[in-house]
Write a structure and sequence with these properties.
Keywords: Carbohydrate metabolism, Cytoplasm, Hydrolase, Magnesium, Metal-binding. The protein contains eight helices and 15 strands. The chain is globular, with a radius of gyration of 19 Å. It is α+β, with helices and mostly antiparallel strands and 330 residues long. 32% of the residues lie in helices and 21% in strands. It has an eight-stranded mixed sheet, with helices on both faces. The protein has a five-stranded mixed sheet with strand order 10-9-11-15-13, sandwiched between helices. The chain binds 6-O-phosphono-alpha-D-fructofuranose (P6P). 6-O-phosphono-alpha-D-fructofuranose (P6P) binds next to α6.
Length: 330
């Protein structure tokens, strides 16, 4: 059944996952364990981020810290931590990451899940202390259990995702995810080392008055998108663009709004990556009652041909995505 679980605010993530698993009649617990592994990696990265200013790991790759150790950038550390957590958790047979060109094999060839991840989105934001995020997407593998996974395992439509979510390392650290039964947000209490349900059954408003895009590229946008921007300004909508996808997405999810990254001269196919940015956020927004489009089609219907392919991205309140699509297609 598709009813959303009404669980009390304040329940721990662990208990929520357990209750949620009961709602899946044939669940064997592997996805539950995988979600716990992701939450663990998020806690570790959260600690690294909070220490970054102190132990000077936000600098360029290769810089030395006070102990004379070779430094690694936070996004490299995040990548290493997620891969290690997923490998050790044993539920994932392969990973693709924004930080790696090729498929990463975990050696768990009997595991049935694969994960696509952007371990820490937007390094320019890391160095300037802007809120940053991790985005993840979970699929069942297409290849036989026991065989070595291949790139083909990852070339599935977005609507085949089993789960997706993000961690936002901001004024507080929040984990937001869906397994297809609604969207829930968990806020991290670092003094207890626990995530607690703080945003149960998130639903985005059908319409909104916030638009997020980099207007510096306005002259590159199609006439249609420029006309939509004019409409937003005539209606005195608020322009909010943090330049950090997870932060912009999360604000719009809670307050209503649209995030747009259209094709530009510099990025003719859009800038954002389909498999580990657009697909996971599109799954979330649809589960929260919103929409995600590349301007012509539903993001989740796209069949990817390359692990790192990019896409134009319009995501948020359904009526706002419909409006900009109408400009583009008429
Ligand atoms: P621009 C950060 O580099 C990122 O991937 C997203 O987090 C962000 O929304 C976007 O790119 C910002 O891109 O071209 O506006 O700087």
């Amino acid at each position: 059944t598709n009813e959303q679980l009404a669980l009390p605010v304040g329940i721990t993530l662990d208990r929520f996952i357990m209750r949620n698993q009961e709602a899946f009649p044939f669940a064997s617990g592997e996805l539950s364990q995988l979600l716990r592994d992701i939450a663990l990696a998020g806690k570790i990265i959260n600690r690294e981020i909070n220490r970054a200013g102190l132990s000077d790991i936000t600098g360029q790759l290769g810089s030395q810290n006070v102990q004379g150790e070779t430094q690694q950038k936070l996004d490299v550390i995040a990548d290493i931590r997620f891969i290690r957590a997923l490998k050790n958790g044993g539920e994932v047979c392969a990973i693709i990451s924004e930080e790696a060109t090729e498929v990463i094999l975990t050696g768990n060839n009997h595991a049935k899940y694969i994960v696509a991840i952007d371990p820490l989105d937007g390094s320019s934001n890391i160095d300037t202390n802007v809120s940053i995020g991790t985005i993840f997407s979970v699929y069942r593998r297409r290849s036989e259990i026991g065989t070595e996974p291949t790139e083909e395992d990852f070339l599935q439509r977005g609507n085949k995702q089993v789960a997706s979510g993000y961690l936002l390392y901001g004024s507080s650290t929040i984990l937001v995810y869906t397994t297809g039964k609604g969207v829930n947000g968990f806020t991290y209490d670092y003094s207890l080392g626990e995530f607690f349900l703080s945003h149960p059954q998130i639903q985005i408003s059908q319409d909104g008055e916030i638009y997020s895009c980099n207007e510096g590229y306005k002259s590159d946008f199609s006439d249609a998108v420029q006309h939509y921007l004019e409409e937003c300004k005539q209606k005195r909508f608020s322009s909010r663009y943090i330049g950090s996808l997870v932060a912009d997405f999360h604000r719009n999810l809670l307050k209503g709004g649209i995030y747009m990254y259209p094709a530009t001269r510099k990025t003719p196919n859009g800038k954002l990556r389909l498999l580990y940015e657009c697909f996971p956020l599109a799954f979330i927004i649809e589960q929260a009652g919103g929409k995600a489009s590349d301007g012509k089609q539903r993001i989740l219907d796209i069949f990817p041909t390359d692990l790192h392919q990019r896409s134009a991205f319009y995501v948020g309140s359904g009526k706002m995505v419909d409006t900009v699509e109408n400009y583009i297609n008429n």
